[in-house]
Give the backbone structure.
Amino acid sequence: MQIKFLDFEREYGLLNQELNSKILSVINKGSFILGEELSRFESSFASYCGVKYAVGVNSGTDALHLALVSLGIKAQDEVIVPAFTYIATAMAVSYTGARPVFCDINEQDYNINLNDLKKKITSKTKAIIPVHLYGQPAAMPEILKIAREYNLKVIEDSAQAHGAEIYCSDGFKMAGSFSDLGCFSFYPTKNLGCYGDGGMVVTESEDLYNRLLKLRDYGRESKYSHIMLGYNSRLDNIQAAILLVKLKYLDSWNDKRRELAGYYNKALGGISGLRLPLANKNVKHVYHVYVVRAEKRKELIDYLSSNGVPSIIHYPIPCHLQKAYLDAVNKPGLAPVSEKISEEVLSLPLNPFLKTEELDYIISKIKDFY
């Protein structure tokens, strides 16, 4: 049997009539930039996240970058980010001229470690970017408490957590809605993905919203009047139309991801040499990826591959050990948990279109290996 890690063909088979209709509508209208579809999607996504405002941009990386710029982050500032995340989180900070300060993670849920976070705060620290890694929300109430204590801004990197929720005193709230700004990616592999690059910044602040509208569109207030330095970072109407269709299915797809993760957990529990993902209490994990920690990881990858089962390492090198950041400060030993985890994690196939017989096949091959 040959398994796909992701199955865009099955997804498109389900949605093709709706998608084709929406895409043709945009083409026939000839409105491709900052049009009706984008406005509708921004409004719908803001409502979905439980916030007032949403600004579509051209990628999740730009969402983080423009969010930082909107907060006034600049050269000589420091922004704390997890050492174990995709490199875009750190690079968005670097684009502003500020310095990303790498913080270690928890060994249980792979999210930012609060004790190390507090140790990394200095007089230059201006913001924290917690990442809801793999679809598991970070400890936002506790992070916000630390931020208030030190007068820091908070930007949630929610690129892997569309629809994830955190329980707080008001009940469950969406990841991305807790902080000054929440940033999302719509890269095709995400739980909510378009057919190209795309991103979104959400906020409750009208002032930040208005700044972001200008920042994404050359800093202009009207067609040829530019009042600040801005960027060309707009979510295309065709991608917004695609996302409008997919947004209707997001909750059911996330439910399916949780169901499949539970199936994996039940079948793989108790295997010596394999550590399964933990879902924290008081959160709704959306399993952007299903990540195990495997002894004999390379051998397992090779064995699965030889039997038609793909797997991916998210992520093999922590940010502070990437050549782009390796220096006198960022060196081995800075984030020991991140370094350990990077040598063990392995993502198994999980998507809403995975069939039970395919899941059983993957599980049987893992059991055969161990």
User: Anything to note?
Assistant: The first helix runs from residue 8 to 29.
